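Hey, quick one: can you model this chain's 3D structure?
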Amino acid sequence: MTFVQLAIGLMLLLGGGEALVKGSVAVARRLGVSPLLIGLTLVGFGTSTPELVASLEAALIGAPGIAIGNIVGSNIANVLLILGLSAVIFPLATTKQAFRRDSGVLIGASVLMLAVVLLGAIGRTLGALFLALLAAYTIYTYLTERRMHDAAALVHEAEAEDAMPRRDVPLWSGLLLAVGGIAAVVLGAGILIDAAIEIARAAGLSEVVIGLTLVAVGTSLPELATSVMAAIRRHADVAFGNIIGSNIFNVLGIAGITAVVTPIPVPSEIAAFDIWAMLGAALLLVLFAATGWRIERWEGGAFLALYSAYLVVQLAPGARAALGLG
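Sure thing. Here's the predicted structure for all 326 residues.
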């Protein structure tokens, strides 16, 4: 029964996340919002709504291992699993202009997350700081790209175009789709968290491990769907931009909002290993992308191999204990 609940939760997250993005994008277009702003906000951050709701729910029920593990694990899965799979399907090209600024923000956010994890807790003041940084980054990016309309602006406009419904949607229909998507995500996240806790107890796994793996991958399904479909359509820049934008929002937005609502203690296991894995994945992404400004198929394969190794560390009996990770 628990696995049935898990499957229902995952389907609600995937369907709800997709409906939320498409509905909100359709409404924004009907209201005359520019494709640039839509791509930068609704699409770039909208696919991370399942992570936000799941981390909030976990924090509020006193499961910080799932709340923090979901954020860190989602960023690891976004790069190693989702970007890796997308690159294997079709090499992902980017440009200096589109990548240089956002990759710098991604590394900066990852280092900031490392610092607060090593502190042992994320309080309301730090959460508010995260949100202020996210707002500053978003406003600066929008104003810069609107003025220059460079390659980065074209990427965000392409993200908006890819997220648009395939036919014209009336305003009321877009609103209904967005509201229904939010309801499905909230319901699905609750079901997923409950099922994940039960599975952790039955399998003898910690909530941290479940948050880093099962919950993280489950809440990343909208990013997976968006990036893989973009790769299949040969929209490599959209797949790239989706992952970088999602990872920035996961740290600054999700950790920030969650900490403002309720301060989050950070489990020591995450500080010992997983936050370093998250930073390493971000650095490897930048390294691969900067050599030729594309992720080749073999580099995508390397990402997938590294994620497989990460899962072995998490799920193999005694692997974490053997590494001194609890």
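One thing worth noting: Residues 35-52+62-162+206-316 form a domain with the A middle domain of Talin 1 fold (CATH 1.20.1420.30).
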